[in-house]
Specification:
3% of the residues lie in helices and 42% in strands. It has two helices and 36 strands. The N terminus is likely disordered.
């Protein structure tokens, strides 16, 4: 492993960014127009640079909750909802493209200061384990780590020699293995874009690479290692929207799967016929997965619910609530859920409290107003470790920015 000390100065003040650099899926023409030209607000960019606060706080008139918009310059968002976005109770991880390329910043939730952590050329995907004070990310073809305390960066492995594309990834809870999905065959014009796909593991000590699963004929996504057991891996059969070209489009009959790290055991989580499941995550205690689901066919068509399910089926609960196809995050008490779709309204953040076999209480927190045009604009809500904040992103102001809503969950119990 080589250690890297990076320093870089940008002298360009304004550039035009093409859409291949925006991790977004299908963008509307209106969104493309807004995002096409992005002012570089930081002419100097280097690791350790501290940016002054941009925060503004107000109490939402309709809900009474305190909202803070933490960023306002450039394009900013936070990690995907399956990734731990908090270094500690008062420090969050965010992304910003304010210097021209996507970088990781620490956001101080006390004073609003932002500290730049990386100088990456082409960042895609991260994982984070606060226990080890480490963020892992891919920059181009190189898998790297960074210490969240001293910002020391390491090159761990370069995938350049492989023809496959590294997709969704996660690091085991003991920080010993990188688990990742690959597409072994890049799509060609006019041909189906499916691989085959497989899951691999990379030993973070000796960098030995081993295939875990056999080759599959479906897109493997949402790879997530268990937060307690380093041997368990969660992944999904990623569905494809009809507008995706050169793909086998349609819903997955069985969405959620598991495999152990040796590839000797695994299989699907039982899924009721006629349902579409989305946005699965492990619960904090690692005993079950939480997910969003809805009936797509039959007499219950368009009935939505949140679910909890264990591998062995001993936990298999559902809670009716019109929340699909939104993102969900369940708090460590396995009682409180945050969702970014509520009552069929794709513009609402809501806090749900579950009881025995039902949602006992629902509270609307904020109308996030996201256009949902691309991943950067999706709310992807996440609880802070102490339940004080919900962190989310939205392009409500025209470009994606980072927000919190203060809920003080521990005081609400």
């Amino acid at each position: 492993m080589k250690y890297i000390l990076i320093f870089n100065i940008f002298t360009i003040i304004y550039i035009q960014i093409g859409f291949s650099g925006i991790q977004s899926g299908n963008l509307s023409d209106e969104t493309k127009s807004r995002w096409n030209k992005i002012e570089i607000v930081d002419s100097v960019s280097h690791v350790g640079r501290i940016l002054p606060a941009e925060m503004k706080t107000w109490v939402d008139e309709s809900t009474g909750f305190e909202i803070t918009q933490w960023t306002s310059n450039g394009i900013n968002n936070h990690p995907y909802f399956t990734v731990e976005s908090f270094i500690d109770d008062e420090t969050a991880i965010i992304f910003s493209k304010r210097s021209g390329k996507k970088q990781i910043y620490k956001l101080n939730l006390t004073n609003g200061e932002m500290t730049q952590m990386t100088i990456a050329d082409s960042m895609r995907g991260i994982d984070h384990l606060p226990k080890y004070k480490t963020i892992w990310y891919i920059d181009g073809t190189v898998f790297k780590s960074i210490n969240t305390g001293n910002f020391v960066t390491k090159d761990i492995y370069d995938f350049a020699k492989y023809s496959f594309h590294v997709g969704s990834f996660s690091v085991t809870c003991d920080a010993k293995w990188l688990i990742f999905a690959v597409n072994k065959k890049e799509a060609e014009p006019g041909n189906c874009g499916y691989g085959p796909y497989a899951i691999y593991k990379l030993n973070l000590n000796d960098t030995m690479l081993t295939q875990i699963t056999m080759d599959y004929g479906f897109n493997i996504g949402h790879v997530q290692t268990n937060p307690v057991d380093p041997d368990l891996i969660l992944y999904c059969w990623q569905w494809e929207k009809p507008e995706n070209e050169n793909k086998l489009t349609g819903h997955s009959p069985i969405r959620t799967w598991w495999v152990n790290i040796d590839g000797t055991e695994g299989g699907p989580f039982v899924q009721e016929y006629g349902t579409q499941r989305t946005h699965e995550t492990w619960t904090t205690d690692g005993k079950a997965i939480a997910f969003v689901s809805k009936y797509r066919i039959g007499p219950k068509s368009r009935t939505h619910f949140l679910g909890l399910q264990s591998i062995d089926g001993k936990i298999n609960e559902r809670f009716l609530s019109q929340v699909s196809p939104g993102h969900q995050n369940i708090f460590k008490d396995n009682k409180h859920w945050i969702v970014d779709v509520f009552n069929d309204d794709e513009q609402l953040l809501a806090l749900l409290t579950r009881g025995k076999n039902k949602i006992e209480k629902s509270v609307v927190l904020f109308r996030h107003g996201s256009s949902l045009s691309g991943q950067d604009s999706h709310p992807h809500p996440r609880f802070s470790p102490n339940g004080k904040y919900i962190l989310f992103s939205t392009d409500k102001t025209g470009t994606p920015q980072v927000y919190t809503v203060r809920i003080d969950l521990e005081k609400r119990k």
